[in-house]
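Here is the promised in-class demo. Please do not try to memorize the tokens; focus on the logic of going from shape to residues.
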């Protein structure tokens, strides 16, 4: 791969949210990574001292992540046990943003030089302060087939968190993004043959015909990890399926059958699952929707699932964490982890058959669950708790006190000078009212006191056994929380990135950290 990768196709796709009614030990920081954290940290608005103190955890090449038996507040069942469930949890994989684009040290790779800085790619992202605000958790350079090794690592990470597979966004039928789809399917087969790759042609990007798309999908269907139902049908789940009429999709499926001998289970994903979409029922195995990225837009899940089931179809429920898009100048108010928890609760309560995490790694939209520089494993770890309930039907027992701390690193109203960032990021129409809060989300084995410090302001609150969220006003500086029970500290967590004023560019994503994982 050349040192300069192919530019991502539609890296900040305009995805309209749903209507309002849905609407073991510490790991050593590798020498080459320390510089990367320093550089990326400074780009993210943190100081060198903070980056040195809170350096991102590194993984040795080929080594598994920290054991989930100690990182989570509960004991995660083995993948085999979770897969015994008829319910599936998949994550939307966006091919433009793999772990590395050029196999260079993190401090000088393409992410650091071009995506996380306003001056990258000849300044094309200067107006909005750079294309991205976060990146995949940095990895050191590798020898040999490094792209394959990185994709295998991503498959392993998802599998170890309890996921069944990826829905892969097919942006093109040739070029680097297409090649990465094929390599991902090979990586899954080599790493875990039981890990599914569900094909998702992206109709906001593809310009194609039914015959050409059938030929491309048939090529991918040769891989053993292509998601098929028990009856052998290939699952195809087009993104923004409404871009084409039902007849167009019927012709594509006919081409797959007559030319390639492949039967299809179509699960169209709509940007908005309106009653009009029932026209697709005759050709579909199930339905899905991209969903909303703010708490109150999760309330339509029950109606969507009921409508799909009434039509004899399965429903794939979207689960999201947040959404902030510098390039498009828009963000949704996620309310710390409120959207994540609400969307998971909606999937569970509605009786959805499948779940799609939207997304695994679309850093240009800030929607990623994958381990990242700013969030570590926090959002993925939280999802492991909820997916266990979704798949087993029983809430897992909390056996380790664990804290999750989330906040932004700046105040919503603070904006950089127009001369530095002319295009500001504004709330999306219909989103929840933006707020400046620190959330302490506790998973406790028994009631305890939680001591807090937010920017030097100390406090304490009682927290019950189980899951409990507490909001505190955002203040400049670092935040931390500690669980104290019977005079003994059981666990503590501290933010890795401080809240600062003034700001030199907008970054409206919520940063997350967990006490379950080692911090530096």
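The designed amino acids, position by position:
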């Amino acid at each position: 791969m050349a040192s300069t990768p192919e530019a991502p196709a539609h890296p900040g796709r305009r995805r309209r949210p749903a209507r309002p009614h849905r609407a073991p030990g510490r790991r050593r920081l590798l020498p080459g990574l320390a510089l990367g954290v320093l550089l990326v940290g400074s780009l993210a608005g943190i100081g060198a001292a903070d980056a040195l103190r809170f350096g991102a955890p590194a993984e040795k090449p080929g080594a598994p992540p920290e054991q989930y038996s100690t990182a989570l507040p509960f004991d995660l069942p083995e993948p085999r046990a979770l897969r015994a469930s008829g319910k599936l949890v998949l994550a939307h994989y966006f091919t433009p943003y793999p772990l590395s684009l050029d196999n260079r040290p993190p401090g000088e790779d393409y992410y650091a030089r071009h995506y996380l800085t306003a001056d990258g790619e000849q300044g094309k992202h200067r107006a909005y302060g750079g294309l991205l605000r976060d990146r995949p958790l940095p990895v050191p350079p590798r020898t040999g087939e490094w792209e394959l090794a990185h994709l295998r690592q991503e498959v392993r990470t998802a599998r170890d968190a309890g996921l069944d597979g990826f829905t892969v966004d097919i942006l093109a039928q040739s070029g680097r993004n297409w090649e990465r789809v094929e390599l991902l399917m090979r990586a899954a087969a080599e790493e875990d043959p039981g890990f599914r790759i569900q094909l998702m042609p992206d109709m906001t990007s593809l310009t194609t015909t039914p015959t050409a798309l059938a030929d491309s999908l048939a090529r991918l269907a040769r891989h053993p990890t292509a998601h098929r139902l028990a009856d052998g049908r290939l699952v195809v789940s087009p993104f923004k399926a409404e871009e084409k009429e039902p007849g167009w999709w019927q012709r594509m499926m006919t081409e797959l059958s007559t030319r390639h001998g492949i039967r299809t289970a179509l699960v169209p994903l709509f940007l908005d699952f309106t009653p009009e979409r029932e026209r697709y029922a005759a050709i579909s195995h199930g339905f899905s929707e991209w969903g909303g990225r703010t708490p109150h837009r999760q309330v339509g899940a029950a109606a969507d699932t009921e409508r799909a089931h009434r039509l004899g179809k399965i429903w794939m429920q979207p689960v999201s964490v947040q959404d902030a898009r510098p390039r498009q100048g828009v963000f949704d108010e996620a309310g710390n982890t409120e959207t994540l928890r609400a969307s998971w609760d909606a999937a569970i309560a509605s009786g959805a058959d499948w779940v799609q995490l939207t997304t695994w790694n679309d850093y240009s939209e800030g929607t990623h669950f994958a381990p990242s520089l700013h969030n570590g494993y926090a959002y993925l770890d939280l999802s492991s708790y909820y997916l266990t309930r979704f798949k087993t039907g029983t809430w897992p027992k909390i056996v380790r006190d664990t804290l999750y701390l989330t906040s932004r690193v700046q105040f919503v109203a603070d904006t950089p000078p127009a001369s530095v960032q002319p295009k500001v990021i504004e709330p999306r129409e219909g989103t929840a009212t933006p707020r400046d809060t620190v959330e302490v989300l506790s998973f406790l084995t028994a009631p305890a006191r939680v001591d807090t410090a937010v920017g030097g302001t100390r406090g304490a609150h009682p927290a019950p056994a189980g899951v409990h969220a507490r909001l505190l006003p955002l203040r400049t500086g670092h935040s931390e929380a500690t669980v104290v029970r019977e005079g003994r500290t059981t666990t503590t967590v501290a933010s890795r990135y401080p809240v600062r004023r003034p700001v030199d560019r907008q970054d409206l994503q919520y940063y997350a950290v967990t006490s379950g994982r080692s911090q530096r």
